[in-house]
Known about the structure:
It is a single chain. The protein is of the alpha/beta class. The chain has 2 domains: 2-63, no CATH class; 70-221. 55% of the residues lie in helices and 8% in strands. It is built from 9 helices and 4 strands. Strands 1-2-4-3 form a 4-stranded mixed beta sheet, with helices on one face. It binds zinc ion. Zinc ion binds next to helix 5 and helix 6. Zinc ion (ZN) binds next to helix 5 and helix 6.
Amino acid sequence: MLFKLIPKKIVSQNIIDFIRFHYNKDFGKLKDVIKVDIKKGLFLKIKKGSRVGRKELLRLLKKNHERISQDKIRKIKTLWYRNEIKILKTIKNITGIKISIKKITCYLDPYTKLGFYGKNHISLSTNIKLKDVLFVIAHELFHIFYWRKIKKLSLKMNKEKEWILSEITVYLLQKQPEMKRFWPKSKIYLYPELKKVYKLIKRNWKPNEFNNFLIKSYYSLK
Ligand SMILES: [Zn+2]
């Protein structure tokens, strides 16, 4: 997997998706997760999905240059490359999903404290602690291949529920003892609003029966 500095366009898209679809705390807490000085007016425009807000954010980002220390970049790469094969193998053992990282780019993002995924790329915040780096990379990578799997199995349900199940699945996976040894000190986090569905779904989870888990869960959520 290649590591590159994140382009501003992708930072902007990540921040917009996050604010529009995943951020439900009040404006004051935004600075805990996003390091760009977004004023309340702009925040509200983005939340509404306004095109003006989109342009304004990109302009703001173009004026803002956060640096990443070479030392941090080196540490992140070393950590990942040292564990890459083992992590991907463990995911394959548990889920049967073969993650091929050849065409995936990991963008290093000094502008947020978040992880994101796109079609062929993930974004990793360089403001997180080293102990969480493997956890976040594996999380975002798994999302990409999870969606490819869902497509292959032709599973369909409403978008909101699909998203909830994808998060719960990654959560269940990352909690497995064979996985936890890669991130023993990371807090494995589930969005509080997903806890109810989690209770319903977790009984479907059996190691090495991943396709069945997905199919059963799609049925029980439909
Ligand atoms: Zn996620």
